Amino acid sequence: MKTIVHISCDFPDPIVSAKTQGVISFIDSTAGFRHVVYSLNRANWRTNLVALDFAPDRTAIAYGAPPKGLMLETRLAPVADYIRADLAKKGIAPDLFHAHKLTVEGLLAHRLAGELGVPYIANIWGDTDIKFIAARKDMAAKWRAIMLGAQRLLPCAPWTAERFIADHGLDPARVEVMMPIVKQEEVLPPVVTGEARIVTLFNLDQHKRKNLKGLLDAVVELRRSEPRLTLDIWGRGDANTLCDIDTMIASRNALDYIRLKGPLPQGAFESTLNGYTAFAMPTLRETFGMVFVEALLCGLPVLHTRGWGIDGVYPEDTIGYAWEHGVQADIAKGLAYLIANEARLKGNLAAMAGDGAFDRHKRAVIVAQYRRILDEATGGASAPEPAAAPALAH
């Protein structure tokens, strides 16, 4: 059985439990490999390192470092030392390192793989990796070495692949888009509402990054010519966030048509979204945005951001409208387009579903891709999936 050592800042652990389930989804879906995980958690301005084994082959690490990538490589050196010593102590011989982000995790995988003489692969997490590379131009040679040394680079969106290939002169044969696993598998038939009911959904604590202000301003503007227009805002947020958003809506005299809804009821995600005219989230920066795919699978055309998120996954004119980043007037234009073209766009989505265009988001398809990548990177086939236990006779 091949051993994959995962280094990730996005793995739920006892230090920070409320992390995304993305890495877990890939690991839990690829039996036949031994998956060893080092989950990283940065502590601001500290200098020490604390490690906790919280499950078999699962270690959480808290390490001290300044914010914004300051002293990045210096403060990660003790983390690399710890991981190498821990692997030796536990008798774990890696066949592959998987850095779940090019920067931070990639620095560790590049060093450890070189020291231990094994290959590594690295995800490119568009937004974060672009920020780190831009902020630390003094590390350009190191970033390039990491990219050139990886067996495979795995951006999660087409725009990320195109940008990194162009900006860093990468060999396209070593860059493969691997999208995140979304929770939703079912594709709902679109329902043409003939209305102007817009919905958005996200972690409300991130409302600045998701450009809620821009969306609110666009809705208020469009409402002058489209008096039926409403916007429902779904999602969780802390008390301060909820008060801030309520103030934002009230200051625009829009409480009667822009509604703060709170968390979606358990089990009601698909049925709730299916009844809207369109989904809108004009984010300022977005690595992928799984909610866009989930909205499409619920039968909703989407307003997303050109050059970010899901841009390039599907032809723009078939699924909705990509607004021009930074052009505020284009958000209202996009909303008007989604409302006026609801029937045609939802017809496109229904046709795409019928043609199997959304199958690429199925867990089985993405897991098969990941398994193939692991097999290719480790130079051999993985162990077979465990056979299901035979049913007991009654």
Structure write-up:
By secondary structure, the chain is α/β, with parallel strands linked by helices. The protein has 14 helices and 13 strands. It has helices at 22-28, 72-89, 105-116, 126-135, 140-149, 158-168, 212-223, 239-250, 269-274, 290-297, 316-319, 328-340, 342-354, 363-378, and strands at residues 2-8, 33-44, 49-55, 58-65, 96-99, 120-124, 152-155, 197-201, 230-234, 258-262, 278-280, 302-305, 320-323. Helix 2 (72-89) crosses helix 3 (105-116) and helix 7 crosses helix 12 (328-340).
Strand order of the largest sheet: 3-4-2-1-5-6-7
Using only C-alpha atoms, the radius of gyration works out to 23 Å
What class do helices, strands and sheet pairing give? alpha/beta
DSSP helical segment count: 14
Straight-line distance between termini: 36 Å
Q: What is the tally of beta strands?
A: 13
- Main sheet makeup: 7 strands, mixed
Low-pLDDT stretches are: 386-394
Shape field: globular
What helical percentage do the residues reach? 25-40%
Q: Kindly estimate the percentage of residues that lie in beta strands according to DSSP.
A: 15-25%
Succession of helices and strands: EHEEEHEHEHHEHEHEHEHEHEHEHHH
Q: Average the pLDDT over all residues and give the rounded result.
A: 94
Question: What's a quick, concise take on this entry?
Answer:
This protein is an alpha/beta fold. The protein is built from 14 helices and 13 strands. The protein is 39% helix and 19% strand.
Comma- or semicolon-separated keywords:
14 helices; 13 strands; 7-stranded mixed sheet; globular
Indicate the topology.
Elements: E1 2-8, H1 22-28, E2 33-44, E3 49-55, E4 58-65, H2 72-89, E5 96-99, H3 105-116, E6 120-124, H4 126-135, H5 140-149, E7 152-155, H6 158-168, E8 197-201, H7 212-223, E9 230-234, H8 239-250, E10 258-262, H9 269-274, E11 278-280, H10 290-297, E12 302-305, H11 316-319, E13 320-323, H12 328-340, H13 342-354, H14 363-378
